[in-house]
Amino acid sequence: ANREVLPDFSGTGELSDGYRVPLLSNVGSGEDAQLAAAAGAEGVGLLRTEFCFLGKEKEPTHEEQVAAYGAVFAAFAGKKVVVRTLDAGADKPLPFLTDASEPNPALGVRGYRTDMTSPGVLERQLKAIAQATSEHEADVWVMAPMISTPAEAQDFAQMARGAGLATAGTMIEVPSAAVLAGQILQRCDFVSIGTNDLTQYTMAADRQLGTLAELNDPWQPAVLHMVAATTAGAQSADGKPVGVCGEAAADPALAVVLVGLGVTTLSMNKRALAPVSAVLRTVDFAKAQRLAQLALDAPSAELARSAVRAELSELD
Ligand code: PEP
Ligand code: MG
């Protein structure tokens, strides 16, 4: 087993004034879930269910899926686990579901869109998630990747509820979804911002191209404005939850900015829990809001990052 020693994390995320920001973990297998729970994660903010599908020649059976999801739920009894339905395509090709010959796979049939070309796979996955939920104590939420319109959010929520899953949401990783987050949240229960793809699509810069790394930076003020549009939409929809589950949440200074923008939970690699919680504890909510405004007003990613870091002395 993996015996890596992780830095100490108290098990709750909060600011200096007691404002709570649950710190969750991104997880990609049952074993990973046990390690995240041991590291003190308050729950799972992103279960990447691709682990059950990738490398397979055909769709895993109902029983295989129930066992795979159940292993994760067992590690988080009584805690929240946000399950993302299959996100195949683009950087995660899957031979029996996605078409590798598409000219622009990142703009193609990926994520939720594969339900158009391979109907049934998503519905069967939702049934397996519901079955595993009924066998464990975890508080299971389910969300779809690559949602682009309020209608898609409505269709997905209906499908999830039809499978017996009570809490259904969507990822926000396409600019069209960020702009219409309020309308999306009128049709489902929560959203979670995937900053990796939201950055790629806002900046029109392939996340897999190292040469475009400067554009592919979640500190880009345009990306932060997309986050602000999402939290503003949530405010207009009864203040429903807005998480972040992309890599941005694992950068301590950027985590402060995200909280200041109104994000309610952060989900990250287990290794980031301790450093992120340590920096969150040094600011109150008013300061987080002030730093968020500094970043929104900056003309570049570099200046946004340096302006915020200069106000967080414990970082260097
Ligand atoms: C994201 O896009 O930010 C995300 C969390 O999903 P993935 O990295 O798996 O595409
Ligand atoms: Mg994504």
UniProtKB/TrEMBL annotation:
It comes from the Bacteria. Residues 15-284 form the PEP-utilising enzyme C-terminal domain. It is found in: Cytoplasm. Its EC number is 2.7.3.9. GO terms for biological process: phosphoenolpyruvate-dependent sugar phosphotransferase system. The keyword Chaperone does not apply. Phosphoenolpyruvate binds at R48, R84, N196, D197, R207. It catalyses: L-histidyl-[protein] + phosphoenolpyruvate = N(pros)-phospho-L-histidyl-[protein] + pyruvate. Mg(2+) binds at E173, D197. The active site is at C245. General (non sugar-specific) component of the phosphoenolpyruvate-dependent sugar phosphotransferase system (sugar PTS). This major carbohydrate active-transport system catalyzes the phosphorylation of incoming sugar substrates concomitantly with their translocation across the cell membrane. Enzyme I transfers the phosphoryl group from phosphoenolpyruvate (PEP) to the phosphoryl carrier protein (HPr). This is Phosphoenolpyruvate-protein phosphotransferase. It comes from Glutamicibacter ectropisis.
